[in-house]
Give the backbone structure.
Amino acid sequence: MATPVFDKETWLDITVNIIPMGIVAFFVAMFVVLAPWGFEGIESVISFALLIVPTILLAYLTYVAAGLIEDAGE
């Protein structure tokens, strides 16, 4: 049987970052699917970039932090 990437305590520690990532991903998906104000060129690109880039960086930071938490627990 394969060993899990992170243990239960680490998952609980990184939940504080996973929940906001899920919320932002939900809103990005809703803005893409529903497009309440339409797409207006560079303004839409900038607004999506201001949501997506920090979310990607937060995901990377969360992964690195989880690895450090795992190493500290040993």
